[in-house]
Amino acid sequence: MSTSPTPIAPFELDTPTILCIAFALSFMPIAYLLGISLIPSSQTRNRILFFWHAYDALTHLFIEGSFLYECFFSYTTLPAGFAQNPAFLGFRDRVYGATYGTYPSARLWQEYAKADHRWAVADETVISLELLTVFLGGPAAIYVCYLLWVASSTSKNTTAQAKGAAKGKLWLVATGLATAELYGGFMTFAPEWLTGSTQLETGNAVYLWFYLFFFNTLWVWIPLWVLWEAAKEVKGAFVVAEGVNGKKKAK
């Protein structure tokens, strides 16, 4: 049994809402400052890649991580005689989720849940996806940032071999992460599309285009671009390898 959130309220740009939106967007300038500090200005593509993966990591770890916290630690006890089935975490007399939290992170997800009601409660499918996103996707994005830093290094102490090894790992991990982002997004929204989007608030322009479209399609367009760049890198590497092998055979 799942508990439905309260009926949707009209969008209101009050102070708590402004703070929630500001917090969600605050990682963009942080990621940007890290990028311009660690990646040389001459390497534009690497700066963009670093910016994205730094923002990706911060979002997964701190924002989506807070969602998991609310799902596992915020709850209310059901009145005697009421029980949910299946029982989340084995407790049939409890309902979990941000709706029942009191910390600022709960207010953040209560706000987003106005657009996608599943995030107000402990939805098992969403939690399962977020466990992978937070504990695998977040660290993977940090690792990509590290590899970009090594591959972009202008230090004489960083050898060409070290840069080459970093680039190889970079495109392998970045490709896997981008694919996972696209898969996670599909599995988050495809069930709703197939059932008439009953948990999505599509009648309000702000919730539809800002909360749902803008915040979620970032993890569509940019991963697609990363995969495009990865494909070019792999193609280029094989072309070079074939050229080297051709010269060796000619000798």
Describe this structure in words.
With 251 residues, the chain is mostly helical. The chain is built from 6 helices and 2 strands, in the order H-H-E-E-H-H-H-H. Strands 1-2 form a two-stranded antiparallel sheet. Helix 1 (15-38) crosses helix 2 (44-73) and helix 5 (160-194) packs antiparallel against helix 6. The chain is elongated, with a radius of gyration of 22 Å. It starts with 14 loop residues before the first helix and ends with a helix. Residues 1-6 have low confidence and may be disordered.
Task: Give a quick precis of the structure.
This protein is mostly helical and 251 residues long. It has helices spanning 15-38, 44-73, 104-112, 124-151, 160-194, 205-250; strands spanning 75-77, 94-96.
What's the arrangement of secondary structure elements?
Elements: H1 15-38, H2 44-73, E1 75-77, E2 94-96, H3 104-112, H4 124-151, H5 160-194, H6 205-250
Antiparallel strand pairs: 1-2
Keyword list:
single chain; 251 residues; mainly alpha; two-stranded antiparallel sheet; 6 helices; disordered N terminus
